[in-house]
Amino acid sequence: QVQLVESGGGLVQPGGSLRLSCAASGSFFSINAMGWYRQVPGKERELVARITSGGSTKYADSVKGRFTVSRDNAKNTVYLRMDNLKPEDAAVYYCDAAVLTHDGNALDAWGQGTLVTVSS
User: Fold this and answer.
1) How far is Cα 96 from Cα 103, in angstroms, rounded to an integer?
2) Beta pairing partners, 69
3) How far apart are alpha carbons 93 and 95 in whole angstroms?
4) Rounded CA gap, 53 and 5, in Å?
5) How far apart are CA 97 and CA 31, in angstroms?
6) I need a surface site. Which of 12, 82, 89, 119 has the fewest CB within 10 A?
7) Which of 92, 119, 98 is nearest to 110 (CA)?
8) Angle at 19 between CA 60 and CA 38, to 5 degrees
9) What does each of the 120 residues of the chain score in pLDDT, given as a tens digit?
10) Residue 84, CA distances (Å) to 12, 36, 81, 115 in order
């Protein structure tokens, strides 16, 4: 079983910054990609940023140049540094991890979500 615990959300003014963290714990063989998605009411969950265990990254066009995803493989933790936040970045942010279990099964684990509010 894998648990993902997010932290770092909150209220920030437009132009401000936040750093989200997501730590994976439990029993598993390895984690490949980890990433961040976000969702606002009435819309589908969308990819924000993703990073593989080797460090390759992918970003949504709307956050390129403002957000930076990174990870600490030793701590099974992924981070999302968000700079120059805009009101349209407000959402619930979810952490995701592509996990390989000890018996060879691949599963997709999700965190509980952390709310980011961007408002003056």
Assistant:
1) 20
2) 80
3) 7
4) 18
5) 7
6) 119
7) 98
8) 40
9) 899 999 999 999 999 999 999 999 999 999 999 999 999 999 999 999 999 999 999 999 999 999 999 999 999 999 999 999 999 999 999 999 999 999 999 999 999 999 999 999
10) 10, 17, 10, 17
Residue type at 95 in one-letter notation = C
CA distance 55 to 85: 24
Measured in whole angstroms, how far is the alpha carbon of residue 92 from the centre of its chain?
10
Count of alpha carbons within 13 angstroms of residue 70, beta-carbon side: 7
The answer to whether 55 touches 38, Cβ cutoff 8 Å, is no
Are 82 and 14 a contacting pair, CB within 8 Å?
A: no
Determine the Cα–Cα distance for residues 98 and 110; give it in Å rounded to an integer.
9
Phi first, then psi: what are they for 89, rounded to 5°? -85, -10
Task: Give the residue carrying structure tokens 């990433």.
Answer: 35
